[in-house]
Amino acid sequence: MDATRYVLTKDYDPFIYQFISNGPRGDIKKIIQFQLIDLENNLYNLAFGDWNELTKQMDDLVVSNNHDKQKVLTTVAFAVKDFIENYPNANIFAKGSTHVRTRVYQIGISLFLEEISNYYRILGYVDDQWELFETGVNYESFLLSKK
Amino acid sequence: MKTITSRNKIVIPEIKVDKGIPDISNDPFFLQKKQNAIEFLKQHPIPGNMLQKQK
């Protein structure tokens, strides 16, 4: 993934990553967490959002709009890549908190599909079934794992 | 005769550890995200043959 991305840092907890988005709305701390939801199947949920320095909590449903959507997507993708390298048996589930955000994830996957499909298998959920990801289909959620 | 057969290589991790990351272990946002994912997958389970298994 050669596209521009933000600098990622990790927590001592290996499931948590952070980066700072810069733009017209200032510096916004973004946190990514890989949440173990099924130990038997090594299934993790990709959770991601903005940290509010004032409330000391994550901001729910905020639209930070720092005009850096692609850079943010690339950064999240890099975190996924790093996580899978450390946990090669992981299955990573992702679903946006809104349809719009799910669509953003889809755009991100489509952007990198040619590059990543050599190493990763990507599934999408649509019409009551899981299938191999195809561009142009509006999926409800996604699953990524190493081939 | 002493020969050097290997050199110590220092690998700098591309992603560094940051002590300043907030504690999100009980953050309601992340807890809700996890619960939402669990609920979705309960209703729309992934077939076993589509999951990456232990190698």
From TrEMBL, chain A:
InterPro entries: DUF6934. It comes from the Bacteria. This is Uncharacterized protein. It comes from Dyadobacter frigoris.
